[in-house]
Design goal:
The chain has 500 residues and is α/β, with parallel strands linked by helices. The chain is 41% helix and 21% strand. Helix 7 runs parallel beside helix 8. The structure holds iron/sulfur cluster. It comes from Bacillus amyloliquefaciens (strain ATCC 23350 / DSM 7 / BCRC 11601 / CCUG 28519 / NBRC 15535 / NRRL B-14393 / F).
């Protein structure tokens, strides 16, 4: 699919136009200026702007479809605010043109970002009432009531789970990335290396990880910065041995300040094939009772097709084993739209979930991420179409509601089937605080270990700075000291200098 766009000379507007086109068409190329290939659609857009307002007119050539929209520009706005208004007005016209041309409705309107709830938090924090904020979302972003209500429900739950959500900016959360898994899944783009035969590399990696924990912990103690949550992810953090886990948590307790007061510690035990009684005993020893066990699907054939190398029976068995060994807050992930799966298979997954009733359930929609094996071999994997994906999503919404779960975080992804969202549901009071922190970007998250991304959020200005540790264990093992130093520089910048 190729769309030719006439009338847009500012390169900064190309990306929003592309993002909106992606909501309508699977593989869509936008062309500006002269093209050799014939285009499927030609859209002309014209922006006119004066001191008080911006207007955009648009037309799909040869169809008679036209749109026009004007928005105000307020005195005293910065250049950035003016540009945002121009971009939103253009997106508004362009979205309406594509909606009327394709007959498709985009319930998220012109919003293509991955964190819709952050926008609502911002509006409420600025002093708008719920009604005013909702009216803005509807008018400026064309978001439908159904999605606005979902956003509000999530925002309310987050504020109930973390009443000081708008004040936790002076604390930090910690993400610890362990980049090993029993085998690599086909849809995976996480830093995950098959652990078999890697003993030497795992040992050096853990050495680096302990070092990072000590240094970061030292800094936090020195500056009296509290830790809100700790999350062990990866990879699969339970793919290392029970002894290695024991030493790691011992390091955590020794290095980080007041671990007994940390609001939540989670360990991803995503792959059921890594869970053993011995490892559960280690979790008990450190009073960690929140883990994730991820079935993804309850069809053995699907698990095989995506390379997970564990069975449905094993997921269920390990779930019960974890319960027996004191895991009181278990999250389970399901993925909608796995290859070969439709409504029947997803309903079966929900029926099986009903027998287990984990405290939280995260429903992902399959996304073809650029680096995954599935994307490289897209032709090999048969996946459901948009309508079916949307029906499965509706099933998830209905099922969770009927079973006492409420949504507490959501994020959208690029290339997500049917332009839907990933939603975390939980029983009220069992929300993952870490997930709320990362999703709403309310505080700094320090990433430690392989592939761990740090996000430094300036406590005063809210400015976000990203910093990533290397994804592969070899580069990490070679330079972990350097990455630790860099993070400490950022922390000084954010917390020490801003306090002067
Ligand atoms: S278990 Fe998770 S991190 Fe590991 S390979 Fe599979 S999807 Fe990737």
């Amino acid at each position: 699919m190729q769309i030719k766009i006439d009338g847009i000379t500012d390169d900064r507007l190309h990306r929003p136009l592309q993002n909106i086109a992606n909501l309508f068409f699977e593989e869509c190329v936008l062309a500006y200026g002269e093209t050799e290939e014939p285009s499927d659609l030609v859209i002309s857009l014209a922006i006119s702007q004066d001191a008080d307002s911006v207007s955009v007119s648009g037309e799909i050539k040869g169809t008679g479809e036209k749109e026009h929209h004007t928005k105000p520009l307020l005195a005293g706005w910065s250049e950035k605010e003016v540009f945002k208004q121009v971009k939103n007005t253009l997106s508004y016209v362009y979205l309406n043109l594509l909606q009327s041309h394709t007959g498709m409705t985009q319930k998220w309107g012109i919003l293509t970002g991955i964190r819709p709830t952050k926008l609502l938090h911002k509006k409420l924090q600025s002093g708008l009432t719920k009604e005013e904020a909702h009216a803005d979302l509807k008018k400026d972003y064309l978001i439908h009531d159904e999605k606005i209500n979902l956003m509000q429900e999530i925002v309310d739950r987050q504020l109930a789970a973390v009443p000081d959500l708008y004040r936790v900016k002076d604390e930090v959360s910690i993400y610890i990335g362990i980049p090993f898994c029993p085998t690599k899944c086909a849809y995976c783009t996480f830093p995950a290396y098959a652990i078999q035969g890697q003993a030497g590399r795992v040992g050096s990696f853990l050495w680096g990880l302990h070092y990072e924990m000590q240094k970061i912990g030292e800094w936090l103690k020195q500056h009296d910065i509290k830790v809100t949550t700790i999350y062990f992810g990866g990879g699969t953090p339970t793919s290392i041995t029970a002894e290695e886990m024991d030493l790691l948590y011992e390091e955590m307790v020794r290095s980080f300040p007041n671990v007994e007061n940390i609001r939540e510690i989670t360990v991803e035990a995503g792959r059921p094939d890594t869970i053993t009684e011995e490892k559960l005993a280690v979790l008990n020893k450190y009073k960690i009772d929140r883990i994730s066990i991820n079935p993804q699907s309850y069809e053995n054939e699907t698990l095989k097709a995506i390379g997970r190398h564990h069975t449905v029976e094993e997921t269920i068995e390990k779930y019960h084993l974890s319960r027996k060994h004191g895991m009181n807050n278990i999250n389970m992930d399901l993925i909608i739209g796995l290859p070969g799966e439709g409504t029947a298979e997803f309903r079966h997954s929900l029926d099986e979930t009903e027998k287990l009733m984990p405290e939280s359930l995260t429903v992902h929609t399959l996304s073809f991420k650029r680096a995954s094996e599935m994307t490289r071999n897209k032709h090999k994997y048969k996946v459901a179409d948009r309508q079916e994906v949307s029906r499965m999503m509706d099933d998830a919404v209905r099922w969770t509601k009927e079973h006492g779960y409420t949504p507490y975080y959501l994020y959208r992804q690029k290339n997500i089937l049917g332009n839907l969202e990933n939603v975390g549901y939980s029983f009220p009071g069992q929300e993952s605080i870490y997930n709320i922190m990362i999703m709403e970007e309310v505080q700094t998250i320090i990433g430690i270990g392989c592939g761990a991304a740090s996000k430094f959020i300036h406590p005063e200005t809210g400015k976000i700075t990203h910093f990533a540790n290397p994804k592969d264990p070899k580069s990490y093992n070679d330079r972990f000291e350097h990455y630790t130093e860099e993070k400490i520089k950022y922390l000084d910048e954010m917390f020490v200098k801003s306090a002067l």
